[in-house]
Amino acid sequence: AVVSTxxxxxxxxxxxxxxxxxxxxxxxxxxxxxxxxxxxxxYYFALFFLVQILAMAWKGTVLPYAGPTLAxxxxxxxxxxxxxxxxxxLGNKGxxxxxxxPTVVFLLLTLPMTMAYVFTMLLQTYxxxxxxxxxxxxxxxxxxxxxxxxxxxxxxxxxxxxT
Length: 163
Prior knowledge:
This protein is mostly helical. The protein has 5 helices and no strands.
């Protein structure tokens, strides 16, 4: 009799555990395409930053700059790098943890980064063709990430409403 109650007790524990596991499972809402874009954008921005630093070093030695213009452009590039690192981190975190707040901040930081690419492409003192091409690619990354980020944010909010 003791064995039957013990086995019955184990059966109830196992069935309750299975029901808890089934209730807790929800399909993932994160976006694989967004995650792929964020992954490649990490590497792209590292390359962009390196090329910009080398180009500014070359421009500083070969081309004439008025006053502290070169220092201001280098400072802006460092600020862009910090903003992009934070933006990519929050996009990654928001997508993988399926939290709307980091995703919203990621989307809000996309605008200053797009403006940074436009500045690099059009408004620097000296713009090389390489600057323009790399800025076009960066704007493409930002645009696609923005669109996919909005889709992901809508999925997160839609799932929060339905649960």
